[in-house]
């Protein structure tokens, strides 16, 4: 089940959103402040956040700035009772998916939540793949990394041996170890795996 957090210090709005959004496939939790949300040990497990702009204590923008430091931040929708262009610009720069004025259209909000959940699924998949590749890279020795870089540059074993002043047999051994640790069978596959690290997919 996917999970969504509503962070709003207005009890009536918070309860209305909980009622509107909760379903058999979506668990919804409410928080009366950004501080309360951040204090929850399960905060990082949500798939979408709906955040009020103006709250007592930490504002919605301040919360977004905190979330920007997370290894992974789920998609965020921001709510406000007042049209505020400067804050909207700041929110979008921090990666918010959309900025909605209260009172909002229920169906429009539901559509945006569905889009956020879809984005979260794709973004978490990319995040997981990048972490797996990064972990695999950490297992390579310094020499294996050197050989890998030359493989990615398109050099043949003979050329790599000449550049590194080592035997072709040694290159072959390192090449085999690189392929094994990175879980690939060819230089093309290796290039594809490494490209995952560049696939940020935009800010979620």
UniProtKB/TrEMBL annotation:
Record-linked InterPro entries: CheY-like_superfamily, Sig_transdc_resp-reg_C-effctor, Sig_transdc_resp-reg_receiver, Tscrpt_reg_LuxR_C, WH-like_DNA-bd_sf
Entry keyword Isomerase: no
Chain positions with 4-aspartylphosphate modification: 52
Domain Response regulatory: 3-117
Highest taxon of the lineage: Bacteria
Residue ranges constituting the HTH luxR-type domain according to the UniProt record: 133-198
Coiled coil feature spans: none
Keywords: DNA-binding, Phosphoprotein, Transcription, Transcription regulation
PANTHER family assigned to the protein according to its UniProt record, in alphabetical order: DNA-BINDING TRANSCRIPTIONAL ACTIVATOR DEVR_DOSR (PTHR44688:SF16)
Stated name of the protein: Response regulator
Lineage per the UniProt record: Bacteria, Pseudomonadati, Pseudomonadota, Betaproteobacteria, Neisseriales
